[in-house]
Amino acid sequence: MATKGGHRDTITGAIVVLVAVILFGLIYAKEDGPNRQEGANGYLLSARFNRADGIGVGSDVRLSGVSVGKVVEQHLAPDFRAVVTLRVASNLMLSADTAAAIHTDGLLGAKFVELKPGGDDAVLKPGQEIAYTQDAMVLEELVDMIIQQAKAKRGYAGKPVPTITN
Length: 166
Fold this sequence. Notes:
By secondary structure, the protein is an alpha/beta fold. The chain has two helices and eight strands, in the order H-E-E-E-E-E-E-E-E-H.
């Protein structure tokens, strides 16, 4: 039984599905698929963080806001610190005093590792560790810290805040 619009609905549905398949194909091609060969481009560096919240394999590594690599591995060291392995572009010559910090893309965006080069003449060699790191800031901890400071300024530190019914 044909609908009131005839085969128009079927054709419209087929076009929508076709456009969706093309868009997913373009996204897949842009990301180079799951079997991307990372080994051919760049060199590995590692960094130790007390907290690496939100960072995972595939997270961006940026320098001055420009993507220069990816996180390729992470594991827990015997001292219970997160060790993150970064693959950075082979043409990137980072000074030995480069710092790595975990930042968030906007208020609730994805986390990434931001590299901040120093002024040392020596450069990091493949496989070396970035000595200076800054951990991820957890939004809940930041809000809790602001609330505790506000309570302390008003004299309610460690005490319940009065309500209208008290």
